[in-house]
Design brief:
This protein is an all-alpha fold and about 425 residues long. The chain has 18 helices and no strands. It has one domain: MFS general substrate transporter like domains (Growth Hormone, Chain: A).
C-alpha cells in the first residue's frame, strides 16, 4: 500500500499537495467570516466566493493546455508563488481594516486564475511519478495527504477565526502557498507533451475535447457533478457558515468541516485496500451521501448531527475521488491527461459560481431550511442521473499489470463499451 512512497518525486508531489490543502482548509472559513464581519451580508459572501470560482472556470481550459505544453513542475511552482502573493494581499487588507468588497472580488478572481493554472497540472502529475501498477495506491495516498491537510486546516481555521480573527487565517493560507511552491521544486518529471507543444492552443483544445467526449462515462459523470457541485457550493460554503453563526458557532463549524475531512482520511484507508471490478460504479453510488450534510443543516443543525453527517460524507467522497482519478489515469493517454482534466474541471465547476451567488437570494425568498432541502434533492437527482448511464455502471478498472498499456492502447473514439472486456481495476470531492 505504501509502495509509491519509495519514489522521491512522488513524495515531493504528495507533500506539496498536502500543504496546499492545509491552506485550503483554512481559507474558506477565514474568508467567509471576514466577509460576514465586513458587511454581514450573505449576498456579498456569495459574490466574493463566486468571483474566485468564476475565474477558475474561465481559465481552467488554458491551464490544461499549459500543463500539457510545459513542464508541470514549472507550472506548479509558479502558480503557488502567485497564490502566495494574492492571498498575502487579501490578508493584509483584512488585518489592516482596509478591505472592501470590490477589492476582495478582484483578489479572489486573481487567486481563481492561479488555481486554474495549477489544478490540471497537479491532477495530471501523479501518473508520471509512479509505475502504472501503483496508480491506484498513489492516488489513495495523495488523497490521504490532502485530507490530512484539510483536517488540520479546517480545525486551525476555526480556531484562528475565533481566537485572533479571519485575517490571520488568510495569512496562514498565503504561507502554505509558499511552502508548497518549495516542495514542488522537487517534482522533476519529464513532460509527456512535446508533440502537442508544436501545435496551436485551439488545436490542443480540440484534441482534449475529442478525448473528453469520446468516453461516455467521462462526460456523464462531469455533467452530474455540474449540478452536484453547484448545490454543495451554495449549501455548504455559503449557507453553512450562516447557519453555524446562528446555531453551533464558528469554532464548531470548523470542527464539522474537520470531521468531514477525517471521514475522508478513513475513506482513503479503505480506498487503499479496496479491489472491485467496477470501481467507478462504487464511487458514483457513494455520492448519495453528499446530501447528508445539507439535510442536517436544514433539519437538525446540532454539533452531534452535523459531525456525524460530515464523517459519513467524507468516507463516501473519498471512494469516488480515488475511483475517478484511477479511472482517468488508466484510460486517458498521459500527453492529453491535463487537458481532459481541464474539461472535467470546467464542466464540474461551471455552475459553482451560479450556486454560490444564487443561494442567498433564494434563501431570502423561500427560507434557509427549504433552500437546503432543495439542494439536497438536487444532489440525489444528480447521482441518479450518473447511475442512469450504462457506461458508468459497466466501466471496469484495468488490471494493475495492464494499467500502463491501457491508456496508450485505448483508441481516441473508444468508449467504455469498447474497453469493457478488459480485466478489472475522484473534487475539491472534485469541487
Amino acid at each position: 500500500m505504501l509502495a509509491p512512497l519509495r519514489y522521491g518525486v512522488f513524495r515531493y508531489l504528495a507533500a506539496g499537495r498536502m500543504v496546499n490543502m492545509l491552506g485550503n482548509g483554512v481559507a474558506p472559513i477565514a474568508l467567509a467570516f471576514a466577509v460576514l464581519d465586513l458587511t454581514g451580508s450573505v449576498r456579498d459572501l456569495g459574490l466574493v466566493v463566486g468571483a474566485r470560482s468564476l475565474a477558475t472556470v474561465l481559465f481552467v481550459l488554458f491551464g490544461g493546455v499549459v500543463a500539457d505544453r510545459i513542464p508541470r513542475r514549472l507550472v506548479l511552482v509558479g502558480s503557488n508563488v502567485l497564490g502566495a502573493l494574492t492571498q498575502a494581499a487579501v490578508a493584509a487588507l483584512v488585518l489592516t481594516g482596509t478591505a472592501t468588497i470590490p477589492l476582495l472580488l478582484t483578489l479572489g478572481a486573481a487567486n481563481g486564475i492561479v488555481s486554474a493554472l495549477s489544478q490540471p497540472a497537479s491532477a495530471s502529475a501523479t501518473p508520471q511519478t509512479v509505475p502504472p501498477e501503483l496508480i491506484q495506491q498513489a492516488n489513495a495516498l495523495i488523497r490521504l495527504g490532502i485530507n490530512a491537510g484539510m483536517i488540520g486546516g479546517a480545525a486551525l481555521g476555526g480556531l484562528l477565526v475565533a481566537a485572533v480573527g479571519p485575517g490571520w487565517g488568510l495569512a496562514v493560507d498565503a504561507l502554505t502557498f509558499a511552502v508548497a511552491a518549495l516542495a514542488f521544486t522537487g517534482v522533476r518529471i519529464t513532460a509527456p507533451q512535446a508533440k502537442s507543444a508544436r501545435t496551436g492552443i485551439i488545436a490542443d483544445l480540440q484534441v482534449g475535447w475529442t478525448e473528453f467526449t469520446a468516453r461516455t462515462w467521462v462526460w456523464a459523470v462531469v455533467l452530474g457533478f455540474m449540478i452536484l457541485n453547484a448545490a454543495l457550493a451554495g449549501g455548504v460554503n455559503v449557507l453553512g457558515p450562516t447557519v453555524a453563526d446562528e446555531t453551533i458557532g464558528r469554532s464548531a463549524w470548523g470542527v464539522v468541516l474537520a470531521a468531514q475531512t477525517a471521514g475522508m482520511v478513513a475513506g482513503g484507508l479503505i480506498a487503499l485496500r479496496i479491489r472491485v471490478r467496477r470501481l467507478l460504479l462504487l464511487g458514483v453510488a457513494c455520492m448519495f451521501a453528499e446530501s447528508f450534510l445539507l439535510v442536517g443543516l436544514a433539519l437538525a443543525p446540532t454539533i452531534v448531527v452535523l459531525v456525524a453527517s460530515a464523517l459519513a460524507v467524507g468516507v463516501a467522497v473519498e471512494q469516488f475521488a480515488v475511483a475517478w482519478d484511477t479511472s482517468i489515469a488508466q484510460h486517458i493517454p498521459a500527453d492529453r491527461l491535463a487537458r481532459v482534466y481541464s474539461y472535467d474541471m470546467l464542466g464540474s465547476w461551471v455552475a459553482i459560481p451560479l450556486g454560490q451567488v444564487a443561494v442567498g437570494p433564494l434563501a431570502a425568498v423561500i427560507g434557509t431550511r427549504d433552500t437546503l432541502l432543495l439542494l439536497a434533492a438536487l444532489v440525489v437527482l444528480a447521482v441518479l442521473g450518473m447511475l442512469a448511464s450504462r457506461d458508468v455502471r459497466r466501466l471496469r478498472a484495468v488490471a494493475p499489470s495492464r494499467a500502463g498499456d491501457e491508456a496508450q492502447a485505448e483508441p481516441a473514439n473508444g468508449g467504455p463499451g469498447d474497453s469493457a472486456t478488459t480485466t478489472p481495476t475522484e473534487p475539491a470531492a472534485r469541487a
